[in-house]
Specification:
The protein is an alpha/beta fold and 105 residues long. It has four helices and five strands, in the order E-H-E-H-E-H-E-E-H.
Length: 105
């Protein structure tokens, strides 16, 4: 899983090709921490079909706001630089994330 920051987000996601999952998380976000092992597991399961990335929004607030990430956790799928789907807060469960991934792989 590729760890992004505010300098690598654009080249890796907004200029990336194909399907890219972005896990937006933040420092002290208990739900984010609980979800992270499941995302890592899905990353291992689907890494051949989809690029997995994550970014700590505590260190990239402007970028998060620019991507309309206003609450956490947010799991988003981008295709060729465009956000095409996302799960926010309570909807971002391991089951829902896997269902969302399966729509695009």
């Amino acid at each position: 899983m590729l760890v992004l920051d505010k300098t690598t987000f654009e080249p890796e996601v907004l200029k990336g090709e194909g399907y890219i999952l972005v896990d937006f998380f933040g420092d002290g976000c208990v739900s984010c921490e609980a979800l992270m092992p499941h995302i890592e597991e899905l990353s291992n399961k689907y890494k051949d079909k989809l690029k997995f990335t994550k970014i700590n929004t505590s260190k990239a607030r402007r970028l998060a706001i620019g991507q309309k990430v206003l609450g956490l956790p947010v799991i988003a799928i981008y295709k060729d630089g465009e956000k095409i789907d996302e799960l926010v807060k309570e909807d971002a469960t391991a089951e829902n994330v896997e269902k969302m991934i399966q729509k695009y792989v």
